[in-house]
Amino acid sequence: MSTDTRHAVERVARDSYGRLVIFLAARSRDIAAAEDALADAFRAALETWARDGVPDRPEAWLLTAARRRLIDGARHRRVRADAVPDLRVVADEAQELAEADRFPDERLKLLFVCAHPAIDPAIHTPLMLQTVLGLDAARIASAFLVSPAAMGQRLSRAKVKIRDAGIAFEVPEAKELPPRLDAVLQAIYAAYGSGWDDVAGADPRRRGLAAEAIDLGRMLRPLMPAEPEVEGLLALMLHCEARREARRGPAGEYVPLSEQDTARWSQPLIAEAERILAAAAQDRRMGRFQLEAAIQSVHARRARTGRTDWETIALLYEGLVRIAPTIGALVGRAAAVAEARGAAAGWALLQDIPAEAVAAYQPYWALAAHLLRRLGQVAEAAAAYDRAIGLCEDPAMRAFLLRRVAEGYTSGL
Do the beta carbons of residue 298 and residue 308 sit within 8 Å? Predict the structure, then answer.
């Protein structure tokens, strides 16, 4: 298989997976069957495109191949009688798409379908991450601290529920949107985080997730203009995205936020994030994502002032942990307090976090190592560095921590 063919398949998977799944699932009324059919279509594409060349409209080719597999599968198993006509309609619509060179974007529709009240709330966000954004069960399981097998079973049960209950594939009425919104926002943010973590772009599917999450945030804003948390999430992602180019040095080395060259930050993205955050603040309903965006806004001021206002960041984190005491927020608060009020104060907050909650949370151990080093606790700092390095998946981050260890031993920690 040629490199061009592989790259073409990866691009379509990255750019159009969610749109293809929702198009097929909305008409077959079976998410699992749509995913299986699309997976078969991608496998066929690897062979056919290598032999015949990449088609002019890859998405339409995949859609046509997948709907054939859906129809073939329906012939060999019992399907809902009222779904059969819709399966046949897919054939006609696929042909229309191929001729018109257009493709509907219904990803938001599927996000809200996955958050239906008939589905276990605990599986709402994981279901969105898999069906709309294409993350595999193993990666989702890692984020939710459960085994891949358990997550796979939960996801399968949820898809069966959608099929058997005949849940409509449509955007809910306006009054039904707010109860489902939190799960949708969490899924979009988790998708952004997954793409953000893959800064080197090593994973083809994750490579475009950050941009896709921002795209979904932009689509969601006009759908729910009265929800400030939608604006808060979009502002948060834009502030983070503004610093993407500064996160790596010339040789690809990791650069922590405090050492980044602010000249490499995107001022247009920062300005857009500030406008959106200001619009959210006018509603006077503070939420988690607005607070997180406000924290990033304070960091962004360093481009103008040359300094970071850690006391303000620490106060914002205090508000955040009251609203959403996630492990990330608790660790972030400890880091901010350490910068504002001293390493001992930050270390005290870090020790308050339950040990079982941070056993495999890499940022906790990286911060613990840093603070213990500042406090002069040599052996404890070395052990924490070892733990942080062992949990690190990013080679550049691992190299950064190893350099910190070497610098510590040189200076006696």
Answer: yes
